[in-house]
Amino acid sequence: MSGKDLDRKLGEVFREAHQVDAPPPFDRAWRAAREQKARQWPAWIWTSAATAVALASIFASVRIGMHQQRQLADQMSFTEPSDPLAFLLDTPGADLLRTVPTFDAKGEWP
Amino acid sequence: MAKGVATLEGEIEALHPASYSWALACCRWRRQEAEDVLQAAYLKVLDGRARYDGRSSVKTWLFAVIHKTAVDGWRRRWFESLGLVRWVRGRSALVNGPAVDEQLAGEQRRVRIAQALSRLPARQCEVLDLVFYHGMTIAEAAEVMGVSLGTARVHYERGKRRLSEELSLEECQ
Question: What distances in angstroms separate CA A40 from CA A98, B35, B82, B103, one per listed residue?
């Protein structure tokens, strides 16, 4: 069988296979698609919902992290060793040493 | 040039019978499935998930949308069949339910053709359907199926050889 004959025969085969196709009315299919579209939620609702969920989970994880850090800091302050002679360095007027003295125009302490 | 849905509606309506035939070929002549695929493809056009950009003919574009919708359907069903119960149900459906439509049952030759087509691998059947029934070139068929021209050519040649073997075997018996 030549190539052309084979092509012709295959063409007939496919035409025969499609002979009883009987498509549904276009209006029915198109209308059904339209109705399905009307029932669908718009894409922006899904997008905003997904964004809100993502933001909420990020916020929650940050909050949990901060809370854990604070707990850890509290635990550390309890376990921090305190110097029993630290009060000896706590002299009267010690805060003066940590500030820069200022004088008024007459050269006196304000 | 991109076209709006309103402009396209007339062309899609004109192509409706051919689109349905193509959906049938994509769904191995299962009518209900083909109707669902066609409706899902129209929905994609309506809600803008499928946009015509004018790079090919409307027919090639619409057929590609239908093909992709059918492939998505197979994938979805494949994932569903991963469940054991569904797998068993799917197997029994495959064993009991013939791929050919009931309307073909009475007509022996058409049934034989349908059976021969159902034995062909999906891609071979699709490329032959596009070329021999829808009158497309192999390049257009490749575009519709989303494969390279070389791949489409291989499926075309193998499909032709296999189908002619299947049918001549049938005729000899």
Answer: 69, 19, 27, 35
Instruction: Write the pLDDT tens digit of every residue in A28-43.
Output: 989 988 888 888 777 7
Q: Taking a C-beta distance cutoff of 8 angstroms, is the pair B128, B159 a contact?
A: yes
Whether A13 sits inside 8 A of B16 (CB atoms) is: no
Handedness of CA B83, B88, B89, B94 (dihedral sign): positive
Phi, psi angle pair for A86, to nearest 5°? -65, -25
Look at B21 and A21 and tell me if their CB atoms are within 8 Å.
yes
Q: What angle do CA B73, B79, B80 make, to 5 degrees?
A: 85
Q: pLDDT tens for residues A75-84?
A: 776 666 667 8
Residue B22 tokens, joined = 């193509």
Contacts of A41 in chain B (CB under 8 A): none
B31-46 and B58-80 are packed helices; what angle lies between their axes, rounded to 10 degrees?
Answer: 120
Nearest CA in chain A to B21: A21
CA angle B14, B18, B19 (to 5 degrees): 90
- Give the Cα separation of B43 and B50 in Å (integer): 9
What gap in Å lies between CA B55 and CA A21, rounded to an integer? 29
Cβ contact (<8 Å) for A11 and B133?
Answer: yes
Residue stretches of chain A with pLDDT short of 70: 1, 77-82, 110
